[in-house]
Amino acid sequence: MLSSLHKQLLNDFQQDLPLSATPYQDVADSLGVAEDEVLDAFKELQDQQFIARIGSVIAPNLIGTSSLVAMSVPENHLQSVAEIINQYPEVNHNYERDNRFNLWFVLVAKDSESLQQVMTDMELQTGYKMLYLPLLADYFINLGFELDFDD
Amino acid sequence: MIDGVSRQLIELLQQGLPLVSRPYTEIAKKLHLTEDEVLIRVAKLKQQGIIKRLGVVVNHRRLGYKANAMVVFDVPDSLISQIGDHVSQFNFVNLCYQRPRQGDQWPYSLYCMIHGKNKETVLKQLDHLIESCGLQQFKREVLFSKQCFKQRGALYQALEKQQKVISNG
Q1: Check: complex ipTM more than 0.85
Q2: Per-residue pLDDT tens digits for A77-99
Q3: Where in the sequence is the domain holding B128, given as residue range(s)?
Q4: Domains and CATH numbers, chain A
Q5: Gyration radius from chain B CA atoms
Q6: B102 and B72 in one domain?
Q7: Chain A within 8 Å of B134 (Cβ-Cβ)?
Q8: Domain presence at residue B158
């Protein structure tokens, strides 16, 4: 079960850990606990996969180039097409969604030329066309995600 | 805009800050920098907006937020930045992007992501969003996620591989 320390660590430090040489000590000080307790609690949260990582979220398309891609695949081919797609190292976040376009993933490559090459290759390998949906504008101000532990 | 060292620094930060008392010294060693140099670079990357945040990245699914909807709207170009700014103010909205329309088969321009504990909550939040931002007039579709075939912390592995090739000559 999550302790109140776990919950505080999950909710209060998504936007930013203190930027200092000793961020976990600073977190501990702000919560009135010892640094070891913070480190242990973070390790527990990571081991139990409540947190993916303590790390950076970077602005899209500043390093390399990326695009959202969608495919419309018949239900009986979905699994095998998803497996083909997953074999490409350029693929992130490959999801099935409940729509006629039912396979959605993000491609990341060093430049748009290599991205197009990967897409062309995927279309050949799978036999299905893709929707190329690169980012045009990002309106999101990332404030982290407010978690509700009440129910 | 970003030099090779900062690029490597970002890749290490994407993998995660070590859970030790002085995490930046570990990163510094890998980059042959001092701890201070790393901290200065991180501060600069944040100030430039390249690092949007550096903190806890939660696993929504594991925390009970199992419903995830991508909602797409056909918003006219002339209104999109105003509406995009408005939509992104809501704390249940996780992402908000403009993407190109793909003809009649996919005429949508504005994408946002809503995470919730169940579909009902997400749909309620969506109703609230539609009403508050005046989105009723725009054609839309709601796409709930079903299964995850591949998930990776935003690790730009393909690029990392390429960089190894470069650094190996």
Answers
A1: no
A2: 999 999 999 999 889 889 999 99
A3: 67-144
A4: 4-47 (no CATH), 65-134 (3.30.70.3460)
A5: 20
A6: yes
A7: no
A8: no
